Amino acid sequence: MKRILLVFVLAFLTGFYSFSQGLDVPVGNPDANKIGVDTAQQKLKDITISQFEEAGYWYSSIGSDIGMISLRKRIGAPEGKAILDKERLEDEASVNAPPGKYVMGVKVKFYRRALSNFSVFPVRPIPIAGKCKTISLWAVGRNFNHRMKIVIEDYFGIRHELTMGKLNFLGWKKMTVAVPPIISQADYHHTSAMGIKFVGLKVYCDLMESFGTFYIYFDDLSAVTDLFEELKKDADDIPDDW
Fold this sequence. Notes:
Layout: H1 2-22, E1 44-50, E2 58-62, E3 67-75, H2 81-84, H3 86-93, E4 102-110, E5 117-122, E6 126-128, E7 131-140, E8 147-153, E9 159-166, E10 172-178, E11 196-204, E12 213-226, H4 228-231
Antiparallel strand pairs: 1-12, 2-5, 3-4, 4-12, 5-11, 6-11, 7-10, 7-12, 8-9, 8-11
């Protein structure tokens, strides 16, 4: 009986020690360096989608009875980009041209108050390789309650709008949205056309603040994507793109 009791006490103390050691890990703060390591086959990579250097590559639209909209490239850049995105920018600088000195500005002149929205699109959708996890964008909001959404196209060509958040802040802010798993990014029958496409941006205007002139600026559109399957493709595989 004493031997059984001793075994029970030792087991209890061992479990309590293991539990107390686990309390040293802050709740809600996972170690990014350990995510995916030895638990899943993935190769996460932070990549640039667009630096908004050429305003001529983009076009905008708004209801003709709502207001006028125009695009223009402006000199400037968010200072926080050099800190938060330093690793990605340095990694890509060795392959691509370094980031330019311009951002894209959008100017909207409202005719009247209305439940309205305006859009900013590239000339053609921009593909994002791999399985996209998050999409980020630097924006200047000017402290309006307008809501910005990002428009993407899934593997089957269906368009979705993902809410990035309100523009109720001053100065530059990096806005990020997660791509939900319900959005199809691949078909297990095929391996050559994986991923989604960035279609554009839509801003839904707050009724009480859709008057006068509104300015917004964009820079450095990027994405965190899983390139594991892209990197592990057979070199002799034939792409289904004909």
